[in-house]
Design goal:
By secondary structure, this protein is mainly alpha-helical. The protein has two domains: 62 residues, no CATH class; 347 residues, no CATH class. The chain has a three-stranded antiparallel beta sheet with strand order 2-1-3, covered by helices on one side. The protein starts with 14 loop residues before the first strand and ends in an 8-residue tail after the last helix. The N terminus is likely disordered.
């Protein structure tokens, strides 16, 4: 996300969308205006408006502290795959990723909702494809050629999560087997399948929802429907891995979308929510999540709660949403200083690559250990994490970053 959408020519045009409350002294049309920041007077006017009205929202402003949060979401997942007994809660890092994605993607859709629907959707899908496909298919292809990937077509078509759901539905005895993600190569791609399905369907549905309370109401209905599906699955398909399908885990994505819609609103209620986010939501969200983990520790730690999510999922979604909204809105210099720490921001920026390749570091470490005594003597956790960061950085520099420049050909 950038505050400067690239032009078709490939240059960065300093144009920004600003959501302005109705009481704003700026003479604007509706909620969103486009202001050319190359004009000093316009820049000064916006700066003054931001100073006097903190609720003014830069539509595509990139707040770097969210990158720091992304890294901790990845780190949680890495920890659970390293030691599931001690870090069973780490698998919920995926859920935090979902909330962040739902929030940021919905902000993009809101920012450009006044432009032609076909143009916005076409360019949205093109930009998502550039972001997701190259690295995904590179890693998938290399993994298939080296360690082997079962059911490769399901991975290639981003439907592997549904495959696991139906497979465990038909053969419920599979739910009683201890699953080892580090030896089930590519199993972690289930969450990328969920996100891709969300990117495919949600923008189209969202574009037909009328802005305002009606839109928020429909999203809340969707959230409630997800909760209902989870209860139905728990009652009638208790052995199936229903936690991997977007009808259930999509609750986190919808929670993020609700947060984005509320933040884009200009009502007094939304303003109070933004003020609460700035003042206390981030620590409150962390406290809620930690309390839920402390109260729901399983007797035999496993990844079963991913496939069969507990009914505390809604509270977790609220906790993660409070963390995202609070961190987005906070002006606490200690919090911002920590999450804006440059190494954390960079690791968050490459978190997609980190997540993609991290589970393949287990077989890579085993292979390197067989040929190198130096590698053998390294702590396995540090070696695997180091390899993950090293290879993800290389993929970012050589593959992802160059391809992302092509987004300039698809401006919203």
């Amino acid at each position: 996300m950038s505050a400067h959408p690239p032009t078709a020519a490939g240059t960065s045009e300093p144009r920004v969308n600003v959501a302005v409350p109705e009481r704003s002294p700026l003479n604007v049309h509706a909620d969103v205006i486009a202001t050319d920041l190359r004009q000093p007077s316009a820049r000064g006017q916006i700066t003054e408006e931001l100073r006097r009205n903190p609720t003014v929202d830069i539509a595509l402003e990139h707040r770097k502290q969210i990158d720091g949060l992304r890294f901790f979401a990845f780190l949680a997942v890495f920890l659970v795959h390293s030691d599931i007994t001690r870090f069973w809660w780490g698998s919920y890092g995926v859920c935090l990723f979902f909330v962040i994605s739902g929030f940021l993607i919905t902000r993009i859709l809101i920012a450009y909702e006044n432009r032609p629907r076909s143009q916005v959707l076409r360019n949205f899908y093109a930009r998502r494809a550039l972001r997701i496909f190259p690295a995904y298919y590179l890693v998938l292809g290399l993994a298939a050629a080296t360690v082997g990937i079962a059911y490769l077509p399901a991975f290639a078509l981003f439907v592997m999560n549904w495959g696991i759901f139906f497979y465990t539905w038909i053969q419920p005895e599979l739910a009683d087997i201890a699953w080892d993600p580090t030896r089930m190569y590519g199993i972690h791609f289930w969450s990328l399948c969920v996100e891709e399905q969300f990117y495919l369907v949600f923008p189209l549905v969202f574009s037909f929802l009328r802005p305002g309370r009606a839109r928020l109401s429909w999203l809340l209905v969707l959230w409630g429907a997800s909760i209902g599906v989870r209860f139905l699955c728990a009652a009638f398909l208790p052995k199936a891995a229903y936690g991997l399908i977007p009808l259930v885990c999509g609750e986190y994505l919808v929670a993020g979308a609700v947060g984005a819609v509320v933040f884009a609103d200009t009502s007094s209620t939304a303003e109070r929510i933004r003020a609460a986010a700035r003042q206390w939501m981030f620590p409150a969200g962390i406290a809620l999540v930690v309390a839920l983990f402390a109260l729901s520790r399983p007797e035999a730690p496993s990844i079963d709660h991913v496939m069969h999510p507990p009914h505390m999922q809604t509270l977790l979604a609220l906790g993660f949403l409070a963390m995202v909204l609070g961190l987005w809105q906070t002006d606490n210099r200690w919090v911002l200083g920590f999450f804006n720490y440059a190494p954390l921001r960079f690791l968050g920026k490459i978190s997609y690559g980190l997540y993609l390749i991290h589970l393949f570091m287990w077989p890579l470490f085993d292979w390197l250990s067989a040929y190198s005594s130096v590698i053998r003597e390294l702590p396995p956790f540090a070696a695997r994490l180091g390899l993950t960061v090293l290879l993800a950085t290389a993929m970012w520099r050589l593959v992802e970053a160059p391809i992302l420049k092509l987004k300039a050909s698809f401006p919203y």
